[in-house]
Amino acid sequence: MVRFDGDAGGVVVDAEAYALRQMHWHSPSEHAVDGRRYDLELHMLHQSETRDGRYAVVAQLFDIGHRRDATLDMVITLCSTSSTIYT
């Protein structure tokens, strides 16, 4: 699990800004698409700063392969610059 203490970006849902607070992984994926589970699932937990601390979770599914992935590159950069990593 990775926790972010500073500005690590965020998402906007229904005109409400949510800041990225934590990321964690599941292997194999918790969710399936058309009955298919993936090798890895990334959960990015975001928290609203103005709506009673509500949460928005964004998930991304991954297959293990040999190509570079833009999302994983972003995760590696974020983890090395603005986070606390828990194992």
Describe what you observe in this structure.
- This protein has 87 residues and is mainly β.
- The protein has one domain: Carbonic Anhydrase II, CATH 3.10.200.
- It is 14% helix and 48% strand.
- It is built from 1 helix and 8 strands.
- Strands 1, 2, 3, 6, 7 and 8 form a 6-stranded antiparallel β-sheet that branches.
Q: Report the sheet with the most strands, covering strand number, pairing sense and barrel closure.
A: 6 strands, antiparallel
Instruction: Give the helices and strands as they follow along the chain.
Output: EEEEEEEHE
Provide the CATH topology.
Carbonic Anhydrase II
Please name the fourth-level CATH homologous superfamily. Alpha carbonic anhydrase
CATH class: Alpha Beta
Mean of residue pLDDT?
A: 85
SS summary, helix count: 1
Number of domains: 1
Strand content: over 45%
Q: Between the first and last Cα atoms, what is the distance in angstroms?
A: 6 Å
So, CATH architecture? Roll
Please tell me what the overall shape is: globular
Please supply descriptive tags for the structure shown above.
mainly beta, 87 residues, 1 helix, 8 strands, single chain, globular, Carbonic Anhydrase II, two-stranded antiparallel ribbon, six-stranded antiparallel beta sheet
Give a short synopsis of this structure.
The chain is mainly beta. 14% of the residues lie in helices and 48% in strands. The radius of gyration is 14 Å and the shape is globular.
Any chance you could write out the topology, listing elements then pairs?
Layout: E1 2-4, E2 10-13, E3 16-26, E4 32-33, E5 36-37, E6 40-48, E7 55-62, H1 70-81, E8 83-85
Antiparallel strand pairs: 1-3, 1-8, 2-3, 3-6, 4-5, 6-7
